[in-house]
């Protein structure tokens, strides 16, 4: 006979847990206000950034250092350029681009790299044009075909080629010089000057000061014609051959002048 004991269920008195009312999330309201204040502060800082930077400067920029020796630019040029108005500011407030533009105003400066060195110094790298030829007597043309000027006495241009033409065609004239010179060298002729007028008409001068007027178009056949007729040109005593006009389809006209 088995006896089954049944467990008397126990009663659990439940404790009622009351949930607090959900508080209003104050961040929902405060976050936009914080963002708005930050935006206002950022705008004020941006609008007055130059003034903020200048307030950090104790002294204006007072000195400079060149990264390499220049060919045409003197220390006097640099000092005068840096002393131009407006006066240089300090390390934080000085705009590098404005300093760069000052040096690029020098005709012979092709490019410049400017760096600020704390607390009141500039590092300058000046890249100058390289003269390839004299241009219209008073200027120079660089190896890149750029026309520029140099102060008197800065460069001995005695051995440079002579080029003439509109400034807008300087690169074309420089390239023509190289081609014509090579063509003449194969004919044992030496080139002294090349000129192009506003109509695109070419004139070259040999090292014996004889001027060849080639006109427009291909100059090779005209130079060949000069070479063939040159031995036949009769120059009277006391005269010298001044020019040979090769702009005609056939033949040429010659001009004579008195010997000096």
Structure description:
This protein has two domains: 63-128, membrane protein fhac (Ubiquitin-like (UB roll), Roll), CATH 3.10.20.310; 131-258, Rossmann fold (3-Layer(aba) Sandwich), CATH 3.40.50. The chain is built from six helices and twelve strands. Strand 9 (202-206) and strand 10 form a beta hairpin. It has a nine-stranded mixed beta sheet with strand order 6-5-4-7-8-9-10-11-12, with helices on one face. It is of the alpha/beta class and 260 residues long.
Key traits:
260 residues; alpha/beta; Ubiquitin-like (UB roll); Rossmann fold; 2 domains; nine-stranded mixed sheet; three-stranded mixed sheet; 6 helices; 12 strands; disordered N terminus; cell inner membrane
Topology:
Elements: H1 27-47, H2 49-56, E1 63-66, H3 75-82, H4 96-104, E2 109-117, E3 121-128, E4 131-135, E5 139-142, E6 147-148, E7 162-164, H5 170-185, E8 191-196, E9 202-206, E10 211-215, H6 220-229, E11 239-245, E12 253-258
Parallel strand pairs: 1-3, 4-7, 7-8, 10-11
Antiparallel strand pairs: 2-3, 4-5, 5-6, 8-9, 9-10, 11-12
CATH architectural group of the largest domain = 3-Layer(aba) Sandwich
pLDDT < 50 runs, ≥5 residues: 1-5, 10-17
Radius of gyration: 41 Å
Calculate the mean pLDDT score and round it.
85
Percentage of residues in strands: 15-25%
Task: Provide the CATH superfamily of the largest domain.
Answer: Cell division protein FtsQ/DivIB
Based on CA inertia axes, which overall geometry fits?
Answer: elongated
CATH class of the largest domain: Alpha Beta
Name the helix and strand elements from N-terminus to C-terminus, one letter apiece. Answer: HHEHHEEEEEEHEEEHEE
């Amino acid at each position: 006979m088995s006896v089954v004991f049944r467990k008397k269920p126990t009663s659990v008195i439940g404790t009622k847990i009351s949930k607090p009312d959900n508080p209003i999330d104050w961040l929902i309201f405060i976050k936009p206000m914080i963002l708005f204040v930050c935006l206002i502060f950022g705008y004020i800082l941006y609008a007055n950034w130059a003034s903020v930077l200048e307030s950090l400067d104790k002294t204006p920029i007072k000195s400079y250092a060149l990264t390499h020796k220049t060919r045409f630019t003197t220390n006097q040029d640099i000092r005068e350029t840096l002393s131009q108005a407006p006066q240089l500011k300090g390390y934080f407030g000085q705009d590098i681009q404005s300093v760069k533009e000052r040096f690029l105003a020098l005709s012979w400066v092709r490019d410049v790299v400017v760096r600020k060195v704390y607390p009141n110094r500039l590092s300058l790298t000046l890249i100058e044009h390289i003269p390839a030829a004299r241009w219209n007597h008073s200027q120079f043309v660089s190896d890149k075909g750029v026309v520029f000027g140099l102060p008197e006495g800065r460069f001995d241009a005695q051995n440079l080629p002579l080029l003439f033409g509109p400034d807008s065609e300087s690169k074309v004239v420089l390239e023509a010089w190289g081609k014509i010179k090579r063509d003449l060298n194969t004919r044992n002729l030496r080139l002294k000057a090349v000129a192009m007028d506003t109509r695109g008409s070419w004139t070259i001068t040999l090292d014996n000061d004889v001027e060849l007027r080639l006109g427009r178009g291909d100059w090779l056949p005209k130079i060949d014609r000069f070479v063939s007729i040159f031995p036949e040109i009769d120059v009277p005593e006391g005269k010298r051959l001044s020019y040979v006009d090769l702009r005609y389809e056939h033949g040429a006209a010659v001009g004579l002048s008195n010997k000096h």
